[in-house]
Amino acid sequence: MISATSRYAAVGTAQLTIGGRTVNYLLRRLLPAPESLAATGAYTVRAGDRADVVSWRVYGDPELFWQLADGNGVMDPAELTATAGRVLRVTLPAGVPGG
After folding, report:
1. Which residues of the chain have pLDDT under 70?
2. Full set of structural domains in the chain with CATH
3. pTM above 0.85, yes or no
């Protein structure tokens, strides 16, 4: 079961049968365009920050680091905090109106 806060919560599943064995898998998740996400604030990266720590500070949940990645157009969450002083967009997830 996929957690409701997972980046894959809204992604569908499919099945593939190979050699008599059926395998369930997640469909591909397409990344949203960062500018399509409603901004709710900003966060300035501090030296030593990690994506999960920043996510906890801004969303109250360290597992929502993927929202920061989506809102800032990065694939690798480590990029978010690689440079102290970087200003991150804090956004709502895709499909949630606001801002």
Report:
1. 98-99
2. 1-30 (no CATH), 33-91 (3.10.350)
3. no
